[in-house]
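pipeline/complex-builder :: batch 7 item 3
reading input block
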Amino acid sequence: MKDKSQMQHAAGARRRMSDDGLGPNSDIGMKLRALYGAVQDETIPDKFLELLEKLDQVELESNAQATQD
Amino acid sequence: MANDKTTNGPPSFKRELLATLPSLRAFAFSLSGRHDKADDLVQDTIMKAWAKQESFELGTNIKAWLFTILRNEFYSQMRKRGREVQDSDGLFTERMAVHPSQFGHMDLADFKKALDQLPDDQREAVILIGASGFSYEEAAEICTCAVGTMKSRVSRARARLQDLLQVSGEGDYGPDAISTQVTSGPPVS
């Protein structure tokens, strides 16, 4: 069982408990973040930007329609 | 916030959605284990989120809100199709090879394999807490479980990962794993 924060070493930017074994110095924590970060750092594919543009556009048009009526 | 395009549209909802996309993709990849699946999930999440944006209050935690939608989407798709991660390894290793990391990409490929072996609830728990940066309270809300349940899932996940990595860490890629650890980062032991 993991209990409330007992360790007091500065856990960097982590605001949660530092004793869950996922902190800045833990091997597993670092690998988790490296794996996650690799995808997070990728450029957002254009198709998502286009999709959002399209959704926005559709909404604008339907709003414009609504105000005309 | 400045409205650049319109007075009646939802520009800041869109902007907040956009800002969350990178971490949403990373979460989708962590859950599904595959890039193609992950992007499908993200696309479905964008559609769902857009359709129900009225139910989101601007200024509240959009990241948690979007993660919840994506997670629900993932599990409803999984119930229909099951989780297939097998064929992702080659592509994954290829993509990791171009990403600068303190770990060798084979090392991370091993780690991903271990992560893929965890039960779903433990995998998502350790990702939300260890990588996505959510508090236990937020993660518990996203997964609709108690905070104590979230804590125990995280600790079981970590223990299981440690087990798996010790077993698979030796032999195969040993020297590579060690040398990458020596060259960067704080001491691990």
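note: The helical segments of chain A are 27-40, 46-68.
queue -> next item
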